[in-house]
Write a structure and sequence with these properties.
Blueprint (H helix, E strand, L loop, with lengths): L9 E5 L8 E2 H4 L6 E4 L1 E3 L12 H9 L1 E3 L8 E4 L17 E6 L5 H14 L3 E6 L6 E5 L1
Parallel strand pairs: 2-3, 4-5, 7-8
Antiparallel strand pairs: 1-7, 3-6, 8-9
């Protein structure tokens, strides 16, 4: 929930149903398909793409790595492949959203819109807030 411009964004919590129609990248190693991948957390940047390198594998390495500082997130990323320009990127299966989390500094307009969406689809919506003495974020249902 601290994504997107210093806590001004939001986070959607999905359940495993969102993975329907996706394959594990670890099994297929092909980003030309709809795949999901568990994030690997590291302190080092990925190597730059070099002459003769497998470009798709290098791109996948960039997508699936993130700073060790975010290891607590236990993130899974979805890579959606579409060959249609302007095509729809992802169709979320019904009942696959568990909750919506609003960033600490989200605009009132965005907050109201997301609360309406959460209410419409019947999922809880949480407002995140920062603790005054630690880096811990607290959540309160709105």
């Amino acid at each position: 929930t601290f994504y997107a411009d210093a806590h001004k964004g939001f986070c959607i919590e999905f359940n495993d149903q969102v993975l329907e129609g996706y394959k594990s990248y670890a099994e297929v190693e092909n980003i030309q398909e709809n795949v999901w991948m568990e994030i690997s957390y590291t302190q080092a940047f990925q190597d730059p793409i070099g002459y003769g390198d497998d470009v798709e594998r290098c791109i996948a390495d960039v997508i699936k790595h993130k700073s060790k500082d975010y290891e607590f997130e236990k993130e899974v990323r979805l890579v959606n492949h579409t060959s249609k320009p302007g095509g729809r990127c992802m169709v979320v299966p019904k009942n696959s959203i568990n909750a919506i989390y609003l960033g600490c500094r989200i605009s009132l307009e965005n907050k109201q819109r997301l609360m309406e969406i959460a209410n419409h689809i019947g999922v809880p919506c949480y407002q995140m807030s920062m603790d005054n003495t630690t880096y811990i974020l607290d959540s309160k249902e709105v």
